[in-house]
Design a protein that fits this description.
By secondary structure, this protein is an alpha/beta fold. It has helices spanning 7-13, 16-31, 77-81, 107-125, 140-152, 165-179, 189-195, 236-241, 249-255, 257-265, 277-281, 303-320, and strands spanning 2-5, 35-36, 41-45, 50-59, 65-73, 86-93, 100-105, 132-136, 157-161, 182-185, 198-201, 220-223, 242-246, 273-276, 294-298, 324-326. The chain contains twelve helices and 16 strands. The radius of gyration is 19 Å and the shape is globular.
């Protein structure tokens, strides 16, 4: 029998704390060569401005999860169709038999696991005394980013910026209550960046959202939103000033415009990517080296994050009797 889990089911069992543990374990397994993860297949649906991605992975070690996520990213969805930008479905298989153990909605799962990846990066790269955060974007992903950062650092204040003023103001009000910290809506990116210990970019912008000269020493940046070779949220100045960490170096060099464009400009080389995050998690490479260092974590999104998180969801759902059993 296969367990079907709706978005509501996934939301009811998946916590950021559990996802952080699952994702950190997945990064560690990848760095220890205990995972198999082909480069994801990408189909760009230009007529509708969307992207379809197929992401398979097996995560070994203590996790032992096997699965495939099909995910779409359609930036025009909220405005045109009243749908989330990111939608997805994940098939989780039994590694011993290949049987489909579960089929679950992966839209919410994707948002949480992406937030969790930034949480893991923040844990290893941000200053221990980081207390303030500037968030570019006010969508579902931005919410998960701030939630994850707040899970690993004792934030006292955050600023949120978005061209959609109503969404920005709603984000500030709801996250202030949910996280118990002061979240301030603002339209002044320079002031927010200059004041922030941590900066999060979770937008659909294809061009840089702030000036790298505004960054103070010791800032950590989680760079999430851009996901193609010709788009970037960070300018070259930010990249040049930073210790640049990838979720996976090979993935960044295949599709991350935030690093590929500065390389093409001749401002940096591929060696500017100092580590993949898993190497820092297992201690093979250092994270933050001094309090004044500016650090960047660039996330493209990895299938190992998805299947490790899906296994955590599946186990929690089984334990709580959530979902519908079907015979395929």
């Amino acid at each position: 029998m296969t367990l079907l889990l709706s978005r509501k089911d996934v939301m009811s069992v998946l916590t950021m704390k559990d996802c952080l543990m699952a994702v950190e374990g997945a990064f560690a397994a990848l760095a220890r060569d205990q995972a198999i993860m082909p480069q994801r297949a990408v189909i760009r649906v230009a007529q509708h401005g969307g992207v379809f991605l197929a992401m398979p992975a097996w995560v070994g070690g203590d996790t032992n999860a096997l699965g495939l996520k099909a995910v779409t990213v359609y930036p025009q969805n909220p405005e045109k169709h009243n749908l989330p930008t990111t939608l997805g479905t994940l098939i989780l298989c039994d590694p011993a038999t290949g049987r489909a153990a579960a089929i679950m909605d992966a839209g919410y799962l994707t948002a949480v696991r992406t937030g969790a990846a930034s949480g893991v990066a923040t844990k290893h790269l941000a200053r221990e005394d980081a207390r303030t955060c500037a968030v570019f974007g006010a969508g579902v992903q931005a919410r998960m980013q701030l939630e994850a950062v707040a899970e690993v650092r004792s934030l006292t204040k955050a600023w949120v910026l978005d061209t959609a003023v109503k969404a920005r103001d709603r984000f500030a009000a709801e996250l202030s209550d949910a996280l118990g910290l002061e979240v301030i809506p603002t339209d002044d990116p320079e002031a927010a960046v200059r004041a922030a210990d941590i900066v999060v970019t979770a937008t659909s912008s294809a061009t840089p959202v702030f000036d790298g000269r505004w960054l103070k020493p010791g800032t950590h940046i989680n760079n999430i939103g851009s996901h193609s070779p010709n788009a970037r949220e960070l300018d070259t100045e930010t990249v040049k000033r930073s210790r640049f960490v990838a979720d996976l170096k090979e993935a960044n060099l295949a599709e991350a415009g935030d690093i590929l464009i500065p390389i093409k400009e001749g401002a940096v080389t591929a060696d500017h990517i100092c580590a993949s995050l898993g190497e820092i998690v297992i201690g093979a490479k250092p994270g933050r080296r001094d309090p004044d260092e500016i650090t960047v974590f660039k996330s493209c999104g990895l299938a190992v994050q998805d299947v490790a998180t899906a296994l955590a969801v599946y186990r929690a759902a089984r334990q709580r009797g959530i979902g519908i059993e079907v015979e395929l």
